[in-house]
Amino acid sequence: MSAQSADTGQPALGALEDGIVVELELEHPSLLLGSTLRRFPAVSIALEYWSELDDGRTMVFFAVRCAEDDLDSFEAALAADPTIADATLVDEYPRKRVYRAEITDDTLRVTSQITEADGHILDRSSGQTGWTVQIRFPDRDGLVAFNRSCDRRDISFHVTQLRMAKPGERAVLGLTQKQEALLRIAYEEGYFEVPRGISQDELADRLNVSKSAVSQRLRRAMNELCASSLSNAPN
């Protein structure tokens, strides 16, 4: 059984060559959890990781944040979503639930097309009615190739941000650019000090994102840092 990160794919190591970084909004009812995202645009879903089992099944773990009043109807939507099967609650927190589900054969997958276009997934999060994905391509040809593969399968493809990757650009081991930027501000403003110099609400205001997005990004960033540090530490 092999596990793979659903947040960043393979972490970026060392200096990056020239290329482009693009943020895309992808939408199709057959994308993972596509019908559920359409029914609950205000719900925040974060893919934690997926795992390929020996019997060929793919299991995905995802964290959900939504209003308490919406939980029953949200879980009913999960049960009816054709892209997953056997959604099971595996962990529960005051404002978050973690589910495990099997990815069905009806699911449209895009990771292989991104890989074929030499793309590297930097970040992925639920949007209003689909997924927001940040990808680094070595050149525009890769972006065009991925766009064409989406067109062939009727996947809505909308570019929200596009920039050139900086020559010699370096990333903190395992972190996306958004995660690194958040950690840098949090550290410089004293978030990790006692007492804290800045709150999550204030970090959200600084970055112009929701408090839940800050919370998720901080958790993922700290998880990546721990995984990278502990995996390289001597036993």
From TrEMBL:
Keyword line: Transcription, Transcription regulation
Keyword Cell inner membrane part of the UniProt annotation: no
Domain of life of the source: Archaea
HTH cro/C1-type domain sequence ranges: 196-216
Keyword Cytoplasm listed: no
Name the UniProt record assigns to this protein: Helix-turn-helix domain-containing protein
Native species: Natronosalvus hydrolyticus
